[in-house]
Amino acid sequence: MLRIGSSVAFQPTKSLTSVWKLENIDDDIIDEDDILDDEDKAKPDSSSLKVCGTTGKRKACKDCTCGLAQELSEAKLDLKDQKSSCGNCYLGDAFRCGSCPYLGMPAFKTGEKVLIQETQLISDN
Prior knowledge:
The chain is mainly alpha-helical. Helix content is 16%, strand content 0%. The protein has helices spanning 32-35, 38-41, 68-75, 118-121. The longest helix is centred in the middle third of the chain and has 8 residues, at 68-75. The radius of gyration is 34 Å and the shape is elongated. The N and C termini lie far apart (75 Å).
């Protein structure tokens, strides 16, 4: 028992081992050579590219009958039919829905004609 005013020698406990043992692991570094295969680095063969059957060019001719003109026209986006589903597009990004064609553009007045670039209509997916 200890009495008031008495002293006792302090005996430290055994040295504690660190709870956190971190080892220098290089697993978080990705080897650049493992990302791309030889197939990814190869350029596409010119024979695999779409060409017009009559002219042999990658652009469809005026009276195209091979279907390249139709395929290219389907790829174009119809800018005239872009409409808002919520009707709040003119208020700004805070009021626009996620699929709004005006997303990222400044607010505008109701009825004002706003031109949308084709690059803004292409999905990021």
